Amino acid sequence: MANIAEGFDTQPDNEFIRFLNYSKRSCTEIQSHLYVAHDNKYIKKDEFENIYNKSNEVKKLIGGFIRYLNKNKT
After folding, report:
1. Which backbone phi and psi does 52 adopt, to 5 degrees?
2. Cα–Cα nearest to 70, from 9, 27, 12
3. 56, 11, 70, 67 alpha-carbon torsion, rounded to 10°
4. Measuring CA to CA, which of 22, 37, 40, 55 is 20 to 30 A from 10?
């Protein structure tokens, strides 16, 4: 969320898209941490799967927003 907020006021949209890509990569980083948490038994499998799936949804939403911004460049 912080990456999106940081990039929101940037101009042109290319800069904002760069920060959106950072946000997508942060979701992947969270997924990596989830594996560590699950492997070390800090979270249960159902918690792992729930958060992992939600992070995938967020990545898809961000990706859709990036595609929208790229399409509307003029």
Report:
1. -60, -45
2. 12
3. 20
4. 55
